[in-house]
């Protein structure tokens, strides 16, 4: 796979082509955006990153990139986790409100900053790659004559739901009714109604608006970039290529964390405790349960206590990520663990505030992953060949868990409320489940093949050529 730098300079002494990026300012969206930037930078493109002040990336970790901060004062729009412990549907509602607020707040300053950059470097600029949620900013770029590409940080299957959302509403699947949650969505197997994106009744209009804008962002762009790969979602990718406008090329270039030279540590918003890797070195192969519920999910103190005692009662060694403020109102310190828990598990487990997840999942000692099933975590576990215990919270996580448990059969879902007896049984069974582990390792091998001279590497080259032709 060659560099585009020679082509970009073209023999006529033009400066190399520059790709502009604008991530949505949440950890699960920042990571794949910077991984994609790393992939394209390694192919010779210059990189400029527009970003909000909220969750701003650390420019010192990316000395070769040009950073442009965009004011995003939205009048105090809340973020997930503010106030009391919100239900999952309310967490999604608040997140979607924040998405719309970012678009409103950034439109005018982004227009001004992009116009100023184009005055200086228009001949360099090849395109803007923006998060699919940033429709307003994609529109601004096109109005100023900059071609656009969209990065979707979720699965191809999830975007298939977005495209089908009007149908789902017409058929009565959305907004979901409590009595119908276990019904199959016959038009979109393997989903059940409960696996679709759901919010409160009050939040349905907001979700409809965000999904409509997201689909429009893709349909009016020059291409859709997905952090997935054909061996994982071949049917879903074929569906998107069939249903999207012919002018929108689809580039499945995942798993991005395997293709990018930039480690996840370079974009982590929380400090990673790397001492846990030393502890893993002392554990037996495939013996440790790794637990992490991602960067946005909120838990009640009761959930934490039931999870803790379930882990303790499983008798399985564990590494548990409990990020600060995962329990709303608990402050910035470590979340409260139940009295007696640390004494009960002394020497058998480690609790940290944040971990280098990619390295943890690749460690030989890790035998299972209790996860919220965010797409990044799901793909990282798939690539590592680690079976998953799924406890989704909101958004696309329920659909991801459905694929893990029922389509790929590389994990099981922990249904309902978190209860210590159910947790202990599920954890012990998952660590001992040889059949699920074999399937997980086989899927991991297919992911590795996609990277090592496979379809994903070819698609990166196609994406680079596509950008050069814009």
Automatic annotation (TrEMBL):
Recorded superkingdom: Eukaryota
Cited SUPFAM superfamilies: UDP-Glycosyltransferase/glycogen phosphorylase
Signal peptide coordinates: none
Molecular function GO labels: quercetin 3-O-glucosyltransferase activity; quercetin 7-O-glucosyltransferase activity
Keyword entries, A-Z: Transferase
InterPro entries for this protein: UDP_glucos_trans (IPR002213)
Family: Belongs to the UDP-glycosyltransferase family.
Protein name listed in UniProt: UDP-glycosyltransferase
